[in-house]
Specification:
Number of strands: 19
Structural class: alpha/beta
Helix content: 25-40%
Strand order of the largest sheet: 5-6-7-4-8-9-1-10
């Protein structure tokens, strides 16, 4: 009689397959779905998917559920090899840490037997008990996305990432010599590459869903009503209804991604200032600008968050001050009490010059002026995706006489903070001497 031994690796693989089978069959259930479309997206079989939705529509958690199922060996009702490798991207590491990674951790803790957060997650690297791995990467520098073959890729808030990031990830979807799977989860940002790839040019093997914020049954009516009262017009169609809105009459038509977006910045600046726009239901913003010896402004960092109290913004401002040696915080003057709280916390805060049209003109002047190095006098680092997105959406409103003489009050939060900082720097008009200060 011939006997055979089953290795521990074989046993582990068999156990993982059985657990995955239970998940597919319904023995292991996910928590309540945000809506029917989210559920359809999680269990879809296609290779190329897009889940397009308003804020709070269940995009990131749906993408995480699909990702964990893939790591457990299932795409839709099809079995894939395990252990496998997947990659999850977001525009910045801050966005990964604040939302995307948390979603994956929550799904694993609740639904993956034997998962231990301390054991199975290290910085930007998650390993499941079955040996499958999930890497978390920023799309800030797309060239750094090159790497080994993978089975699947998820692009969270993909509309804020450069188109090149998808092209590079598509080239990696080849693990085990087979075509892998991709899905993006995002609120739309105009008719950019996401719309072009997954809607306009979609072919066989593609599917996409559009989901409204209202469709999420897990959100309270009070929260939804607050957003509805705040967001209006095209901005509401985009941010709440998940529509691809073609914005017209852009205010900063001079801005170009090829000419104004940089991948690096000087090691030191003559001075550093920050523009602050308050918000709660609307996003609050802090933008950090370094001013070099030639007076050029470099946007080097951004913080954009909703539903944050001023106490949180004080903490964020202190961290940014220590990181960049910020000399001044130029703040939206509509909340003098917030400015006072900044000052009491040791931050050099002051009310901004809030004249809109002069401020827009100052920004436009900097965008069109080029120095002897052929660099504009205002440039934006690629790590600032919210600002880059608003440049493509900030538009003129038409008054009752058909005249466009003021901005639409939407897609303007980073634009306002930028205007405050530019006005402050241009008004200061003090001699600038280059500094040897270095920054993180």
């Amino acid at each position: 009689m011939t006997t055979s031994k089953t290795s521990s690796a074989d046993l582990s693989r068999l156990l993982a397959q059985r657990l995955a089978a239970r998940l597919l069959s319904g023995a292991v259930q996910y928590h309540q779905y945000a809506n029917d479309k989210q559920q359809a997206f999680i269990y879809a079989n296609e290779h190329h998917l897009a889940f397009i939705g308003g804020i709070g529509s269940g995009k990131s958690i749906g993408g995480a559920m699909r990702g964990v199922r893939a790591a457990m060996g299932w795409i839709g009702n099809k079995q894939v090899q395990i252990p496998n490798l997947g990659v999850v991207t977001a525009p910045t590491y801050t966005m990964l840490e604040d939302a995307t990674i948390r979603a994956f951790q929550d799904v694993c803790i609740e639904h993956v037997p034997g998962f231990n957060l301390d054991k199975h997650y290290k910085q930007y690297h998650l390993t499941l008990p079955n040996g499958s791995e999930i890497l978390f990467r920023s799309t800030q520098n797309p060239e750094r996305l090159r790497g080994p073959s993978i089975t699947w890729w998820m692009g969270d808030e993909a509309a804020l990432s450069p188109a090149k990031s998808r092209l590079l990830m598509l080239g990696r979807l080849r693990q085990f010599g087979e075509l892998g799977y991709e899905w993006v989860t995002t609120t739309p940002k105009g008719r950019n590459w996401v719309w072009q790839s997954f809607v306009r040019d979609a072919g066989e093997g593609y599917q996409w869903w559009r989901v409204r914020t209202d469709d999420n049954s897990t959100l309270t009516d009070e929260l939804k009503d607050t957003w509805k009262q705040t967001y209006k017009g095209d901005f509401a169609r985009q941010e709440l209804d998940g529509e691809f809105v073609a914005f017209e009459g852009l205010i900063y038509g001079e801005f170009g991604h090829d000419s104004h977006v940089v991948q690096s910045h000087p090691d030191g600046f003559a001075r550093v200032v920050a523009g602050v726009d308050w918000g709660y239901a609307n996003p609050g913003v802090i933008l950090v600008f370094g001013v070099d010896g030639d007076g050029r402004m470099w946007l080097v960092d951004e913080r954009v968050k909703t539903q944050q109290r001023v106490e949180t913004w004080v903490d964020v401002a202190q961290q940014l001050r220590d990181m960049w040696r910020i000399e001044r915080f130029v703040c939206d003057p509509s909340e003098p009490d917030y400015i006072r709280q900044f000052t009491e916390a040791g931050l050099k805060a002051e009310p901004a010059d809030n004249r809109v049209l002069p401020g827009i003109q100052r920004v436009q002047n900097r965008l069109v002026q080029v120095d002897k190095r052929d660099l504009p006098r205002l440039v934006v680092h690629s790590r600032c995706p919210h600002t880059l997105s608003e440049f493509d959406q900030y538009q003129w409103a038409e008054n009752v006489h058909g005249i466009k003489d003021a901005p639409v009050k939407a897609n303007d939060h980073t634009m306002d903070a930028m205007r405050y900082a530019v006005m402050a720097v241009d008004e200061q008009r003090k001699p600038i001497r280059a500094s040897s200060q270095r920054y993180a």
